[in-house]
């Protein structure tokens, strides 16, 4: 995906184009018993989760990631570094040279991770009080320019909205101090881009509201027509739980820039079920019984193109 292109801004300048993606891979557990797995992912039980089934799932996810060909990809719902490395190895020639997996709390089942074709300069975690997962900040170097990635997996819809608000307010406070830096905020926020019944989405709306010192943030979903705004489905309900959000500093024709109208929901025919929804990983009896070795994830990936601008 990384390639040199000529851009007219307004003169012909040499620039590097790269693709950023986020993908919830839906419960990528290994086949070892650690005691923190969900019941249906405990290995060698009646549910049929084992080494062979794990390899099928890894191969399916690797197909999507390989076809997507992103230069930086954030992954949600990964159990540990070992299974992340297994997924990366399954990419073969397209395996990523750099990776990030956080220091996971002992009681946490799944975390966020990152694969990158660019070197990782530093990482840190914003811990959340009484929450399983933090918000991870990964700084990479793109043509010797720093780019901060804030990777998120907020509490699920079944949790209280106050928990997502905690993430939103914490992240907003951090970014108000970093408003001169170039950054991308992305991941699974478990919140739609607007408020819905029961204040669902209030966390994300709160985060997007600019504070006194912070620059406005832009949610890339607004580049797509209404009928294309979904990356997840539950029953007949389609929603925008995943997001890529950028600041004004990525639209100022300096340093690193977002390429307008490049935001996409990555979908291929094999990723769709008969109703046009994500062809999720199948477990019989509505997810309570036996792994079928069919499907991918209950989320579609999101992608966006960025490029560097010579000063």
Any overview of this molecule?
The protein is of the alpha+beta class. 18% of the residues lie in helices and 32% in strands. It has helices spanning 51-68, 81-89, 161-177, 202-208, 284-287; strands spanning 3-8, 12-28, 72-78, 98-100, 111-116, 120-126, 135-142, 145-153, 183-188, 217-219, 232-234, 237-239, 242-247, 255-258, 264-265, 302-309. The longest helix is centred in the first third of the chain and has 18 residues, at 51-68.
Short description:
This protein is an alpha+beta fold and 311 residues long. It contains five helices and 16 strands. The strands form three sheets. Strands 1, 2, 3, 4, 5, 14, 15 and 16 form an eight-stranded mixed sheet that branches.
